[in-house]
């Protein structure tokens, strides 16, 4: 498969219909964007007026009874001491932080989209915010007390490294979906590292989770005053590069013909954009998707005012739009949940939900030309090899299961297990095995279910990089389960399973329903899935922030894919669904082979494509929901296991699915064992470890796909 830039990505270029055809200086001048005129000035002033209006509304909102009159008196020095302190210490710094962060992220997003010629490039999709957040989390657990400027430097290094990895995988100007896939995968891996640090070092990272969702609340002007010069430097560098970026929009060859150093221009622009993002993260945490939304809101103005196509105008307007997005989100948040609750709810949750909607909308403008995944070609293998592979994996699975039962904070022997099975074990051994064996069973069953679900989704969508967590199904199941866990703390395992299933169904209906037009085009499916996953993640964060600390900690532990406290009753739903899934998939493996080929072959052989898709996707949703209910959110198993199975035994589903099921069970079982033993008595959820394992594998797949395209 080849990856091509979607047609919509052309809007990200500073000129219309730009192409990489070499032109001379004269032609470059003729096709350059129109000069900024009165229309651009009017648009800038209109957007600035919107920002001012939102800022005035924002500064009058809060828990204290301080309205417009008190704010005006505070500004003129005639207010009472209490009112003046509220305005100066809280209201104005919050408003200033929102403007500073919005301008930084909006300008960074516009610059990244321009230099990459990709409308989906932003600090979020390039994992810049995730890298900066992870770097600050690592710095926090060291116990070092860093000044704010030094913290900004740490965030800058983390964001720059993350952006470098994503751009190396996706390539500048390649495909939107490849960039989003690379960024999402790396962000998920970095989020796993951050979550592990939050769980392992609760004292050192106190308050870091809420800050990590993006909060513009401030206590004085100190942070804003120290980061304002950093943001101004980054913004100045971007604006100084805009003439080169205008030339770069004509194509690399055209830019070189007029004396532009393409590589230097790109590197400097990316570094300046990361600096802007680092400054924003340092002030308010990673406020999500502002860098994606702001340029998307400005881009339609190009049709009305052609001079907006000039990069300096586009970047400036995007910065103002970013400030408007953050301010509007803050105003909407406090109006919707009230002044008291809004103190706890980060503004970044609202911007993430808005950004998810924008990402879904952009997905419908993305052209699909064969998808984003590397072409998979597997040689035909003999039946003997299949038997040997299954036998070897069976031995591995048994070894993982035995290790899971014997190892932990207390190491047992096989004799202890035998005594426990016959009812002759002592109270200590009995207690250990009564709690440990159900955990092992839950991990193995959930891994098998997720692997089978991933294999079904990849076959139906014909996308080897699709899997339940990337497509938002796991996020929907997680949201449903978190709603149940936080609102009904005493809910049973079957109740959690029902809530997870309901959430997975809703997410699946949204993702697969929106992507179904045109036969599940791969670009659209992945982008919608990532958007839904982002929306569910924001909703989960909102629930965790609003609930009491006990339920919040329980939800965070559960979201890490932990098997802690599982009983045999929790495994019954996933066991039943897995049996049904194996029976249905086994009986329909030939139909799966046909559906995975193309649209025409099944119809020619009398197979209903729509009914087959509905059956297999419904089964995948059911499997995912049951697995999430059993062990929480575990990512990448549905990607790694089926992909590795195809590499081992070929593409026939009669062979792939059994191998994938065994691999998935072994992977989650191994992750559970490592999470319980490596840092015992502390524990890490299996979901965190599978993300750490799956992220490098996913990155390798993308790298291999890019190498295949370049050959």
CATH superfamily of the largest domain: ABC transporter involved in vitamin B12 uptake, BtuC
**Overall average pLDDT:** 80
Strand content: under 5%
Number of domain units: 2
Structural shape = globular
Helix content: over 70%
Rounded to an integer in angstroms, the radius of gyration calculated over CA atoms is: 26 Å
CATH top level label of the largest domain: Mainly Alpha
What's the helix-strand series? HHHHHHHHHHHHHHHHHHHHHHHHHHHHHH
Q: How many helices does DSSP assign?
A: 30
Extract low-pLDDT stretches: 1-31, 369-375
| CATH topology assignment of the largest domain | ABC transporter involved in vitamin B12 uptake, BtuC
* Largest sheet features: none
Question: Termini separation (Å)?
Answer: 12 Å
- How many E strands? 0
CATH 2nd-level architecture of the largest domain: Orthogonal Bundle
- Quickly give the structural class: mainly alpha
Q: What features would you describe in this structure?
A:
This protein is mainly alpha-helical and 711 residues long. It has 2 domains: 38-339, ABC transporter involved in vitamin B12 uptake, BtuC (Orthogonal Bundle); 383-421 and 443-702, ABC transporter involved in vitamin B12 uptake, BtuC (Orthogonal Bundle). Helix content is 73%, strand content 0%. The chain has helices at residues 25-31, 38-59, 68-76, 81-116, 128-141, 148-170, 176-200, 208-212, 222-240, 242-248, 252-257, 262-284, 290-298, 301-304, 311-342, 347-363, 383-406, 414-421, 427-461, 473-487, 493-515, 522-546, 549-559, 568-587, 589-595, 600-604, 609-631, 637-649, 653-677, 686-710. The chain is globular. The two termini are 12 Å apart. 58% of the residues are buried.
């Amino acid at each position: 498969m080849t990856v091509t830039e979607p047609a919509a990505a052309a809007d990200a270029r500073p000129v219309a219909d730009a192409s990489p055809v070499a032109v001379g200086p004269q032609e470059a001048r003729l096709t350059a964007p129109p000069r900024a005129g009165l229309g651009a000035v009017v648009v800038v002033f209109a957007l600035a007026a919107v920002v001012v209006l939102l800022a005035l509304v924002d500064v009058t909102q809060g828990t204290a009874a301080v309205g417009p009159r008190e704010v005006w008196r505070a500004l003129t020095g005639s207010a009472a001491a209490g009112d003046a302190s509220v305005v100066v210490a809280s209201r104005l710094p919050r408003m200033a932080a929102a403007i500073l962060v919005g301008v930084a992220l909006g300008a960074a997003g516009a610059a990244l989209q321009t230099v990459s010629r990709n409308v989906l490039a932003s600090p979020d999709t390039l994992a810049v915010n995730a890298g900066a957040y992870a770097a600050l989390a690592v710095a926090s657990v060291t116990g070092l007390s860093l000044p704010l400027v030094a913290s900004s430097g740490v965030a800058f290094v983390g964001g720059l490294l993350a952006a470098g990895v994503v751009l190396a995988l996706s390539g500048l100007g390649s495909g939107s979906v490849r960039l989003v896939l690379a960024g999402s995968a790396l962000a998920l891996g970095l989020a796993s590292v951050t979550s592990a640090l939050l769980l392992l070092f609760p004292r050192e990272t106190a308050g870091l989770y809420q800050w990590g969702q993006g909060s513009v609340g401030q206590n004085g002007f100190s942070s804003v005053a120290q980061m304002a010069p950093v943001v101004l430097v980054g913004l100045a560098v971007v604006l100084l590069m805009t003439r080169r970026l205008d030339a770069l929009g004509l194509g690399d060859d055209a830019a070189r013909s007029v004396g532009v150093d393409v590589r230097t221009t790109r590197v400097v622009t990316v570094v300046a954009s990361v600096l802007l993002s680092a400054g924003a993260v340092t002030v308010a945490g990673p406020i999500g998707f502002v860098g994606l939304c702001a340029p998307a809101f400005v881009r339609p103005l190009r049709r009305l005012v052609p001079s907006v196509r000039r990069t300096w105008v586009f970047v400036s307007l995007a910065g103002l739009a970013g400030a408007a997005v953050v301010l509007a989100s803050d105003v909407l948040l406090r109006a919707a949940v009230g002044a008291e609750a809004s103190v706890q709810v980060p503004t970044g949750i609202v911007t993430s939900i808005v950004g998810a909607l924008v990402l879904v909308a952009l997905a419908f403008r993305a052209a699909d030309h064969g998808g984003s995944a590397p072409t998979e070609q597997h040689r035909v293998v003999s039946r003997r090899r299949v038997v040997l592979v299954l036998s070897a994996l069976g031995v591995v699975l048994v070894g993982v299961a035995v290790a899971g039962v014997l190892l932990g904070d207390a190491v047992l022997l096989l004799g202890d297990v035998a005594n426990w099975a016959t009812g002759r074990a002592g109270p200590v051994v009995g207690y250990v095995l009564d709690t440990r064996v159900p955990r092992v069973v839950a991990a193995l069953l959930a891994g098998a279910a997720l692997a089978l679900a991933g294999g079904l989704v990849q076959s139906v969508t014909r996308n080897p990089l699709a899997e339940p967590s990337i497509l938002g199904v796991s996020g929907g199941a997680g949201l449903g389960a978190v709603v149940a866990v936080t609102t009904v703390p005493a809910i049973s395992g079957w109740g959690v399973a029902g809530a997870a299933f309901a959430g997975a169904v809703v997410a699946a209906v949204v993702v697969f329903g929106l992507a179904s037009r045109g036969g599940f085009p791969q670009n659209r499916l992945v982008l919608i899935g990532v958007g839904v996953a982002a929306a569910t993640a924001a909703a989960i964060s909102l629930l965790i922030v609003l609930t009491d600390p006990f339920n919040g900690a329980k939800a965070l532990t559960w979201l890490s894919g932990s098997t802690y406290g599982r009983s045999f009753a929790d495994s019954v739903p996933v066991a039943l669904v897995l049996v049904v899934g194996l029976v249905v998939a086994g009986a329909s493996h030939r139909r799966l082979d046909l559906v995975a080929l193309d649209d025409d072959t099944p119809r020619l052989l009398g197979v209903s494509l729509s009914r087959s898709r509905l059956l297999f996707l419904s089964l995948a949703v059911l499997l995912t929901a049951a697995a999430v209910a059993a062990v929480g959110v575990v990512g990448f198993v549905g990607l790694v296991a089926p992909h590795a199975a195809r590499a081992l035994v070929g593409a026939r589903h009669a062979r792939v699915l059994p191998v994938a099921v065994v691999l998935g069970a072994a992977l989650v079982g191994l992750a559970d064992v490592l999470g319980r033993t490596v840092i015992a008595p502390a524990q890490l959820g299996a979901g965190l470890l599978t993300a750490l394992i799956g992220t490098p594998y996913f990155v390798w797949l993308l790298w291999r796909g890019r190498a295949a395209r370049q050959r």
